[in-house]
Every structure is written in C-alpha cells, then in structure tokens.
Design brief:
351 residues, alpha/beta, Aspartate Aminotransferase, domain 2, Aspartate Aminotransferase, domain 1, 4-stranded antiparallel sheet, globular, binds pyridoxal-5'-phosphate, pyridoxal phosphate, ArAA_b-elim_lyase/Thr_aldolase, PyrdxlP-dep_Trfase_major, Threonine aldolase, PyrdxlP-dep_Trfase_small
Length: 351
C-alpha cells in the first residue's frame, strides 16, 4: 500500500473543516523539522521558538503548551484554571458540553453549568443565571466562564462582548477560558489581531486551534494570565496530552502562526462560506439560520432535499434533525466546490 492514494483527492465535502488535508506549507514545515534528533517532550528548538511567536501574538505573559486535540486543549485549560470543586459556565451548544464525550466531567472532574445561547453566544444575562451562590457549600463553585470564538453556530463575538463577559466574571473571581478552535476565522472576520480577541479582551486562558486551519493535528493551550495556569505542565502529562515528539506539533504551529498562514487559510475558508451564502440565500424552501460570520453556513431545508444532497456530499445534519444542515468550508475549498454545492441545493429544492 506504500505510496498509493486510496481516495479521490479531488473530492471535498462540507461536513467539517477537519475533513481537509494538510496545507502544503505545513507539510513542508514538518519535512524541515524531520531528521536528526531533538530533545523530546517539548525541550526542542521548535517549541522554544513557538514561545516567542506566542508572546508576539498574545503579549509578554503568554506561554504555549502544545497538545494533541481540541478536546484535550479544552480539558487541560479548564483543569489549569479551576480548583477540584469548580464548575464551568458555558453555552448549552458549547462543544465542551455537546461534543467532547463528557471529557470535562470524566477527565477533569468539573461540572458544566450550561446556559441558553440562542446564536451560540453567551450573554451576561444568561451567565448571571448560574453565576451565583458562591458561598454555598452544596454547590459546585462557578470558577470559569468558557466561551467559543467563533461559536459552534458560526457566529463571532466582538472584542467588546468578550471584554464585558470578562469584566463580569473577574468581578466575581471567575476566570475566562476561550475555546479558540476557530479563533483564526473569527479574527479574519473582524479584521483584528489575535490579541484583540484574547489578552486585550480579558481572556485568561486560550485553546488555540490548529487542526481546523490546515494542520495535520495539534492545538495549544496558551496561558495568558499566570493565575489560570497552575500546574499546567503537570496536568498536560496526566491528561495524556504531552506528546513526546512535540517538535512536530510545534513546527506546524510555527508554520501557521509565525507568518500569516493562519490568516490566509482562515480568510479563504470564510470567503468560501460567504460565497455559498450569497448563492443559496433566498432559494425557496431554504432559510439561513444564523449570521454567516466565519466558515460555516447553517440552514433549514425540507427533509427530502436534505436526503438528496446527502447522496452527493458529506455534511452534518444539525440539531438532530434532517431539516437542519451545517455546511462548512475549509482552507482548500474552491469556488468550484461552492458552485457544485449551491447548484445541487437549488436542484434538490425544486424536486
Ligand atoms: C469549537 C470546537 N472546540 C473544540 C473542538 C475539539 O476538537 P477535537 O475534535 O480535536 O477534539 C472542536 C471540534 O470540532 C470544535 O468545533
């Protein structure tokens, strides 16, 4: 099987931005990091350089801890920011709550206090429902507010919205975690540096995404406020997120964040979603459910049309129903892919 491509490399789906392969510049960075020996477990030159790059993006206090998966990043970040008796306030649609197999509860032993978030974004009114009873010994103590930027519903917080949540939380001794699996897409949408949505907006600890933006695999926990990083290096090991050949995760993160690849990839993916939105909005029978602000388009459509489309493209039904779909774009989605999908959508709706 060596060297044999076992799939159609021209086939692109719309299920997730992690259906894509690896960006060629990342593959080149992996090849360049190969050969010779380097100190394992993060003592390598790539991981050291990554610290400099993270300080440039997030400020002088930032410290990066490369990890294997986004779930691992979230669970590690929350453990580092929380006491053992803590609870985390998050949106009911949060990936943490819905799609991490209960890892925050199982691995970190944390209680999640979920609140409604209609368009995926937490509001202070919603957070207030659970940010209470801090002296009650019977209640898991809310110590962290976790928000995703961009959200699981494809929406994006403004820096002012994040700052207001951080100020609310900090005034109650809570820290702020940002699930930035798609931070690059949010920054590209807003035309702002990463720092404006994190450090400068009061975020204490960040899960910085890589896989969904062109890496082979890998993310990083970035501690922005040292108070949110207690024992993080020990917790990374005990949470099984300490990669021995860490140079290969760090080399990918460097390729993404040292120059502007993070922004080029995210801007392209966002542009493809905007193009899809422009081509399908207004089609009879289809409604776009949320503002299209990054690389996802959520729609409602008749079940038979969805079934026809499922025969042609990979995509996820949303909210457990055949009448809602999520279409995601990636760094390698082409305008031709968007033309194919939008033409198929228009045809399926007419049947
Ligand atoms: C918002 C968000 N956070 C975290 C993750 C977790 O990533 P992983 O699948 O690498 O654990 C995902 C993956 O879909 C995600 O969408």
């Amino acid at each position: 099987m060596r060297g044999v491509t076992m799939h159609d490399a021209d086939l692109r789906g719309f299920a997730s931005d992690n259906y894509s392969g690896v960006h060629p510049e990342i593959l080149a960075a992996l090849a360049a990091a190969n050969g010779g020996h380097q100190v394992s477990y993060g003592g390598d030159v790539y991981t050291e350089r990554l610290q400099e790059v993270c300080r440039r993006h997030f400020g002088p206090e930032a410290r990066a801890y490369p990890v294997l998966t986004g779930t691992g990043a979230n669970v590690l970040a929350l453990q580092a920011a929380c006491d053992r008796w803590a609870a985390v306030i998050c949106a009911e649609s949060a990936h943490l709550h819905v799609d991490e197999g209960g890892a925050p509860e199982k691995v970190a032993g944390l209680k999640l206090l979920t609140v409604p978030a209609l368009d995926g974004k937490l509001t202070i009114d919603a957070i207030r429902r659970e940010a209470r009873d801090f002296d009650d010994e019977h209640r898991a103590q809310p110590q962290v507010i976790s928000l995703a930027q961009g959200t699981e519903l494809g929406t994006v917080y403004t820096p002012d919205e994040i700052r207001a949540i951080a100020e609310f939380g900090h005034a109650r001794n809570m820290l702020v975690h940002l699930d930035g699996a798609r931070l690059a897409n949010a920054a590209a949408h807003l035309g702002l540096p990463l720092r404006a949505l994190t450090t400068d907006a009061g975020v204490d600890v960040l899960s910085l995404g890589g896989t969904k933006n062109g890496m082979l695999l890998g993310e990083a926990v970035v501690i922005l406020n040292p108070a949110a990083g207690r024992g993080v290096h020990r917790l990374r090991k005990s949470s099984m997120q300490l990669a021995s050949k860490m140079r290969f995760i760090s080399a990918q993160l460097l390729a993404l964040f040292e120059g502007d690849l993070w922004l080029r990839n995210a801007t392209h993916a966002n542009t493809m979603a905007t193009l899809l939105h422009e081509r399908i909005r207004g089609l009879p029978g289809l409604d776009v459910l949320y503002p299209v602000q990054m690389n996802a388009v959520f729609v409602s459509l008749p079940e038979p049309a969805s079934a026809v489309l499922h025969q042609q493209f990979h995509f996820y039904d949303w909210a457990g129903s055949g009448t809602q779909a999520r279409w995601m774009t990636s760094f390698d989605t082409t305008p031709g892919d968007i033309r194919n999908l939008s033409a198929a959508v228009a045809k399926a709706l007419k049947q």
